[in-house]
Automatic annotation (TrEMBL):
<dbReference type="InterPro" id="IPR038404">
    <property type="entry name" value="TRAP_DctP_sf"/>
</dbReference>
<feature type="signal peptide">
    <location>
        <begin position="1"/>
        <end position="21"/>
    </location>
</feature>
<comment type="similarity">
    <text>Belongs to the bacterial solute-binding protein 7 family.</text>
</comment>
<dbReference type="InterPro" id="IPR018389">
    <property type="entry name" value="DctP_fam"/>
</dbReference>
<protein>
    <submittedName>
        <fullName>ABC transporter substrate-binding protein</fullName>
    </submittedName>
</protein>
<dbReference type="Pfam" id="PF03480">
    <property type="entry name" value="DctP"/>
</dbReference>
<keyword id="KW-0732">Signal</keyword>
<dbReference type="GO" id="GO:0055085">
    <property type="term" value="P:transmembrane transport"/>
</dbReference>
<keyword id="KW-0813">Transport</keyword>
Amino acid sequence: MKKLLLSALVCAAVSASPAMAEDTIKLKVIGQPLATGLIQKNKEQPFFETLAEKTGLPLKVNYKPLDTTGIKDVEQLRVLKSGMFDLVSLRMSQISRDEPTILGLDLVGLSPDFAQGRKVADAYKETVDERLQERFNTKLLGVWPFGPQVMFCNHPIESLEDVKGLKVRVYDQNLAQFVESVGGIPVPIGFGDVHQSLALGVIECAITGPSSANSAGWPEVTTHVLPLGFQMALNGYGINLNAWNKLTPDQQVTLQSAFDGLVDEIWTYSEELFEDAGRCNVGGEPCTTGTKFDLVEVPVTEKDLSIVANTVKEVSFPTWAEVCNKTNPECASDWKRDVGAIAGM
């Protein structure tokens, strides 16, 4: 009788424990939109398609790019929290509407280059992770960049000052505040709708990375590019905690290690794409990853650089902190603790 009781207890314990190594682990994954270009195509999708093989984990991954799902990027955290998908390639600026703390990763003027962007991401990602776990039942697996976001216009400009009075596509409130501060008219438009909006004259300018713009054909409907970095366009990977907790501790370590490797790879690849696409867009050589266009490259002036450098203290941090502290009272103080020294504050 005692043996039967012991056997039953062991079976019950096993059934309540995380997934054993031989169990199939199903992951429903949302990736970056196809329209965003080469990082999605050459790094992200192949990673998920070969994840089981590379890690040795018993995974069955169902990967879908965001723009094939009918789900909007601003809904990603809600989708993760609900468990509709297990893992999502998070578009940080867009989901910051649901969790303003996230935008502290990428305030306008905070990260003019990749080196600064990596420092900020590494310093602040744990704070973001804690907030996502607390409010959205989501663990942050890593943060990576599309690279410095620059301005494309179908209207002749010679400096940042010439944006005054022009309608400029933006993708988050922090960037909108900055565009307003230099006299532009911010217009929030999803990435997939920008090409048509530029072609129809709904907007005169739009901001994104050189590689994404090249892949989406923005140079077909613009004439000038101002290669002044406003934001780093950080993105990340989030996994629903219920899915994460089904893994054994060893499986969690293996999966996290795989994402660490992917993130490092994308940081390097993103910088290569940024430099190459920047040349492609203005007809330069070498141009190996994109389509060659003939945009006018607007020289970046010292005044332009100064305006963006001062933006963190004067515009982007104060306006963001006011909004963020309303939902997260420790928001500004946590950011200063983690990032203040890096930002020169």
